[in-house]
């Protein structure tokens, strides 16, 4: 990872680290609006249903968060995939046998001219398979872990933070700590589960098929296996 930073700065300067930044921002704003709106609405509905069914609180929280994350991610892909494709093309272009894009708008025009609308949604299936489970696993793990931590804190362990009063009326620092710990656990679980899918998706979106013919998921997987073996599917795991 550090070598990638050094090489990028060496050949392209600091601005090279921000290739595709504008496209990412323009795609992220509407995508986040769709994601958060869908997430909260779905979570509320599922939580009510599971609680009425008598599902335990921690399990109910995990299910409602997980399902909501899955649904929200699915809808968000209609917005984020084109921005993802364009930004990644801008990030990896190096002038060696690849189309040179001047900016995001130019990239959209070139991709649409060459491949049509399907070109802007290249890898959308893999995006759904990647981000859907990733979002579901993250929110499910987060909701369940958070409930588990609060339940553990309700037991008097002799520390002021574990007292019943501290849990019933928690200080802001305690709330942030619990949320941070839950997010850390959820992020680790999600990264391990979905990094291989994300690697395949990214390669499929930005690279040409080295075996000839049209690019395919199968060809991308074979290329990864041939060049790096199973370790190749976990490229970028640590930064995530």
Describe the structure.
This protein is mostly helical and 240 residues long. The protein has a single domain, classed as Mitochondrial carrier fold. Helices cover 74% and strands 0% of the residues. Helix 3 packs across helix 6. The longest helix has 36 residues, at 57-92. The termini are close together.
Topology:
Elements: H1 2-12, H2 21-52, H3 57-92, H4 104-115, H5 117-120, H6 124-153, H7 164-168, H8 172-206, H9 217-228
Helix pairs in contact: 2-3, 3-4, 3-6, 6-8, 8-9
Question: Could you list some keywords that capture this structure?
Answer:
Mitochondrial carrier fold, MCP_transmembrane, 240 residues, transmembrane, mainly alpha, membrane
Instruction: Spell out the helices and strands N to C.
Output: HHHHHHHHH
Instruction: Specify the biggest β-sheet.
Output: none
CATH class: Mainly Alpha
Helix content: over 70%
CATH-wise, what's the superfamily?
A: Mitochondrial carrier domain
CA-based gyration radius:
21 Å
Q: Strand-residue fraction?
A: under 5%
Count of all domains? 1
Which second-level CATH architecture applies?
A: Alpha/alpha barrel
Class derived from helix and strand content: mainly alpha
Q: Please tally the β strands and state the result.
A: 0
Q: Average pLDDT, to the nearest integer? A: 76
Terminal Cα separation, in Å? 11 Å
Unreliable stretches covering 5 or more consecutive residues: none
Question: Would you give the CATH topology?
Answer: Mitochondrial carrier fold
Question: What is the subunit organization of this protein?
Answer: single chain
Keywords: Membrane, Transmembrane, Transport
Pfam families: Mito_carr
Protein name: Mitochondrial carrier protein
InterPro entries: MCP_dom_sf (IPR023395), MCP_transmembrane (IPR018108)
